[in-house]
Structure prediction request, 489 residues.
Amino acid sequence: MRPTERYLQQATRGLWGKEKRALRTELHGHILERIEEFRLGGLGIEEAERQVLRELGAPGEVRHGMLSVHTLPAIGKASMISLMLASFLLVWPQTSAQVNGVYHRLPDGGTAAFVDLQQLKTTLETLGGTVDDPVDKVTVTVAGAPRAFSLPIVGWGGATLIQNQRTYLNTDVLLTALQNSGVDLKLSGWNTVTVQAGRTAIDIRTQDPRVNSRLYQSTLLASSSALTTWSQVPLRYEFFNTVQRPVDFTGVFQKDAVYAMIVPTFVSWYAPRAAGTSKSGTVMLTSTIHQAEQGHIRFQLAETRQPFKLFPSVQAFKAALRPYLKENALRHWDRRHPAPALLLKLSGHFGSDAFMVVDPGAVQGHFP
Amino acid sequence: MSSQLDPTSPDGNLLRGHLDLILLSLLQGEPKYGLEISKLAQQRTDGYFDLRVGSLYPALHRLEKAGFVRGGFQPAPRSGSPVKVYALTESGELELSSRRHEFEVFSRQLGKLWALPGSNV
Prediction:
């Protein structure tokens, strides 16, 4: 069963008859239309589907809203079990679990970060949590979580990875499942990134900074902030396989804090038209994330050599980017028209406070 | 030095409290489907109103049940899949007019509380 089908089942559960059928058709139409838009933006079908479902949020949100419209409010058996489970889990003490993280290419050509599933399973179990073997879904529970949530992974290319006879779980899967369990989620650290899920801390050890970058990028994607949802400009993962160039900044950087640089890139393609083909394209946002030293940070940007200019707020950034968003308005950034960019300080929290914009006047860029 | 978070996102309770008024306002003119309504809200307010699916569709269904909007399925422009298109009913237009007036009066009266005593603001 594909992720969309799972989403629709969960979003319409509890409804009956024509209300259920109508909502299902309506949500399905929304998903398919949005997938087409992301595909026009250059994403593959699976990535587009993932992006849309991520954008929709937990299906339970729609379901609860719909049940309040179409049925009488009631406390069902499932709610009671959730309450009992939450009460039971609250008695577990706070502890931490350590797992290894790796970075790997996905079957569809993308890349992802993974954690060692066996280590995660063993250590979580000692902390009063669980993670089951991922088959068509993954359920992760941690102490203090309000509910147990099963995340469907059928059709999720690269939900797991088998390497050297060990199974690894995609960190996007882990973090999405934890988020949907209703637990407060926050990242901290860099060389070892600690995922604080309620009262449980999972330490992800890695030698590969791409794992850390990917973890922190999840906080931007999950923030439901104006940054990621505005004007339907998707924020995609950075391309690590391209040649990169270092960009150094000095200024108000706080030691060990994590920062992100957001830059737009043009994605173009040729669309078939009645009279031959025509070039079209869109703008996508790319992020690069790193930890700062006191007063200094180095980002790695894709080798585009496009000049850019930092803006002091998301609002100003949007305004500067707006002229480039018109369809078929392909342009080039140059020294006279630098690409709008943002420098963000990340909190690590999965929420609306995921980032703060760094004042461009308080930093200085040094480019080779 | 860091600036605060983008200040152009309303508090969740504020948004929920005025969601019906926002949707009725957006549905003026041509009929629109959910995704279109969500995008229009963002575009016309520079991202200030970010209507999440979890609140958008239940609110549209609530308005439909109350008779303020009517919905019907049409093929979507890109995928061709059926999407539910909503339009204001006559009753919805009256409701919008009434709510809008109520909001304007409320906002005007609240503004008076911010004026310093003795000022003409």
About this structure: The longest helix of chain A spans residues 17-40.
